[in-house]
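Human: Not sure, check this?
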Amino acid sequence: MNLKHALTAAALAGAATLSTLAMAPAAQAAPNNPNCLGARAFCLWYNSNQSGSVAGWDLSTGFPGFSDLGNAGAFLTAGAGQGIAVKNHAASATYQYPNNCTGNVQVFFNSNWMGAYDTVPACGNINLVKTKNNDASFLVNG
C-alpha cells in the first residue's frame, strides 16, 4: 500500500469513528426528581399548565437528556397520568435552573432528537405544542 492509500484509509477510519461517536446514545436514566426541585431539574407533566402527574430528572450531574423516552419509565406522582409511560404522554414541561437562567431543553417529536420540537427555556414552564402527547426524546442545551 502506498502512502496515498494509507492516508486515505486512515482518514476513512477516523471519519467512521467520529460518525459512531456522534450517533452514540446518551445515558438513559429513570425519572429521579418527581417534584422538580433542586439546583437544576427538568420535568414533563401529564397535563397542560404543569398539572397532573410528573416525571422529573435531576440535571445537576450533567445528564444530557434522553434519546428515547420509551426507556424513561412512567409518571411518578399522584394525579392524572400516574403510572402511564412518559413517552408520547406529556403535555407540559418545566426547566428549573435557579440563579442561572441560561440554556434550554428541547423536547422532540421523534427519538434520537429528531423531528419537530418545543423549546423549554431555563427557569421556565411551557405547554407543549409541537410535541404534546408526542414526546419521544429531550436534549439539554446549557
Notes: Helices lie at 3-23.
